[in-house]
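Input/output pair, single chain:
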Amino acid sequence: MAQPFSLAHEDDYRRWRAWKLAQVPADASALLVEIPQAANPEPAALEAIAHRLQRCNMAIYRFLDDDGEDRTLVRQLAAHFGLTRLDYHLCSDPSGITALSCDPSGKRERYIPYTDKPINWHTDGYYNRPEEWIRGMVLHCVRPAAEGGENFLMDPELLYIHLRDENPDYIRALMAPDMLCIPPNREEGGEEPRCGPVFSLDDHGQLHMRFTIRKHNVIWKDEPLHRAARAALMDLLQGETIPIYHYRLKAGEGLICNNVLHGRKGFRDDPQAGRLMYRARFFDRYPAQPAAA
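Output:
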């Protein structure tokens, strides 16, 4: 089996790198797949989504016959790609598919996804325990904001390539088990910080990224190499070297991905019909096995 993300297998990396860079989509429109029947997606549409997940870890789908208010349709679509183990977390709904909307009161008001504020670069679940890391995700639009709310997306594998090419030791540093720590959430009864790497490999050799760009309530490993690796990562996120895909989801559209780097611009709500998204987070990813590039 090819091991492109292992620093000990340079030949595998070089072959995969050449394949990966040849697959990079030109813009967000190349990610879009239309699904004529939301309740019964045709094989061609599923194959098109799978192809995008394999080449860039994300796809945008559009239900042509349904606005997607039925959460079952979102869960069924995810299951076609092996995303079945939902993350039931502090703010999730009983179904495991969480409704994201502005919540001016209650326990959710402290969390930015439930406000109209912008959200900077992150991957979901960076504060979870390792056994509950989020590897797959669906973000489905039921109702867009009156203005704004555009998402921006980046494939973590491209970030990995640029960092490894610049200095393989940056990858070693970012794989340190205490590279990124999140202080305990007292509301969840946490007593210890959640520490882990930024980059790691799962049991199948697939790359996983755990990251937040936020400055508060984050503890980074503070040694010279680790500071340099973090600085290189931040420079890439704030530069124009790696493609960033910008897309404002419309009603009935959604993002399905292997928990890519993402963020959201701020928005203005319609007082009568505010922005509503369904978010499903999974412990699974697609594909379960790495491509033998």
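The longest strand covers residues 136-143. Helices lie at 10-22, 43-56, 71-79, 156-166, 168-174, 224-238.
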